[in-house]
Amino acid sequence: MKGKCLFKYTNVIEETVGNEGVSSTDIENIMDKINKSYNGLLEKYKNKELGFMDLVHQDLRPYTMLKKYSKDFEYIIIIGMGGSVLGAQMVYEGVKGIYYNERKTSKKVYFLDNSDPEKTFEILNLVDLEKTLVFAISKSGNTAETLANFLIVRDRLIDKVGNCNKNIIVVANGGMLRDIAEKEGYMLFDIPENVGGRFSVLSAVGLAPLSCMGINIEMLVKGAREMDELCKNEDIFKNPALMNAVIHYILYNKGKTISVLMPYIERLHKFGMWYRQLWAESLGKDGKGQTPIVSVGAKDQHSQLQLYLDGPRDKVITFLKVDEFRHDLTIKSSNYLNAHKLSELINSEQEGTEASLTSKNIPNVSIIIDELNEYTLGKLIYMYEMQTAFMGELLEINAFNQPSVEDGKRITRELLRGKSLEELTGFKSFDSKYVIEM
Ligand code: PA5
Question: Is 5-44+219-395's fold the same as 71-211's?
Fold first, then answer.
């Protein structure tokens, strides 16, 4: 498996993009802070607060064994929300591609990651439940959307199959989901308590379903493990996660409040969605945070780039680029496209976009991967987890909780218990005086 990755930050340095970029003085001025953040993070790790860093050394056998278990299932449904589902989705699509369910040879995989009734209904109609392996994943075991979907799918399974114990695998540490799993005797996995949802892709949350989907989880974790070595380097010039966190921190303080991730390969679109949650939910606290956006190149050049080039100067861009695509096609034409491959076109478009942003002094970094596979994806995932953790230290916030999200969940529960919104929040959500019929 190929696996070379480069982190290029030439286009953020002051010599390239002027004072909207990062100068060596900018870094020197905060060197004490950088050291404090680095040491603070390692201290947290030593105090067993950062379980996600231990996952790169875990025994993978409980998950690799699932491959055999799942052999005869033709469909897999993964039920979960946010950090409990996005990781598996990102890796699956990152490795298998965006049309995975269209392929005759592979299992059909569906992610039940919302409470949208149409989605649940449609997915239930697409699978043969008898041949379906269902994962219900929730660390708390009490997330409303996950529980609701699980209870609906389980009812259907019981109706169709009767005893459906072999069709269900639960990953939960507590709550109603774990109670049901224990009572019914479903296969059950734990998540280390010190691993938070959005940092949990390399725990049972991601690895159990991914192993059943035919992903090489050993290579995924190997990539992460090697990145872990790099990210423990205290020399910022040898540590890509620390360097990228510091770059984003300095630029954030210069008004770059938006971070745009631009993969130039569609297989990384879900990586972008995963990153969006990681960056937003971890860092959006105490009035601080950098808004993450995902734009897929080259297509979003025709939708977003005008804003990035000519709009408010509040963005830092990250390009994700691969050297080698799994498949390629040659163009026959009477113009400049002739004899070129599609891969040359998309990568030239990336280079063109990078050059035009740089010429306008818009800071951008690039991650260049020779080939997108489990190993390189593992590296990328871990780099971003560490980068987020370092950024949390630099911003002096707790990157590992999400206190404000909890309030919305509480209101939802009370609404379903029959309370009114006005009673719960003290304000009217619908006043016909302020509504226009259309
Ligand atoms: O990152 C997080 O902690 C959240 O996104 C959670 O993963 C999400 O809310 C789902 O929670 P749970 O796993 O408890 O169902």
Answer: yes
- Does 83 sit in the ligand 1 pocket, CB within 6 Å? yes
Residues 318-334 have a mean pLDDT of 96
Whether the predicted pLDDT of 405 surpasses 90: no
Average pLDDT over residues 149-175: 97
pLDDT band at 423 (very low <50, low <70, confident <90, very high): confident
260 phi and psi angles, rounded to 5 deg: -105, 125
Average of per-residue pLDDT values in the chain: 96
Check: CB of residue 64 under 8 Å from CB of residue 218.
Answer: yes
Region class of 398: left (phi > 0), else alpha (psi between -120 and 50), else beta? beta
Q: Is 82 in the pocket of ligand 1 (CB under 6 A)?
A: yes
Tell me if residue 46 is catalytic.
no
- Looking at domain 5-44+219-395, its CATH class is alpha beta
CATH architecture designation of domain 71-211: 3-Layer(aba) Sandwich (3.40)
Under 8 Å between Cβ of 70 and 133: yes
8: β partners: 366
User: Residue 206 pLDDT > 80, yes or no?
Assistant: yes
pLDDT for residue 406 is more than 90: no
Catalytic annotation present for 409: yes
Where do the domains of the chain lie? 5-44+219-395, 71-211
Q: Which one of 84, 137, 170 would you pick to mutate in the ligand 1 pocket, going by the greatest count of ligand atoms within 8 A of its CB?
A: 84
Distance CA 16, CA 321 (A): 20
Q: Which of 83, 281, 66, 42 is nearest to 191 (CA)?
A: 83
Quick check: pTM over 0.90? yes
**8 A C-beta contact, residue 89 and residue 63:** no
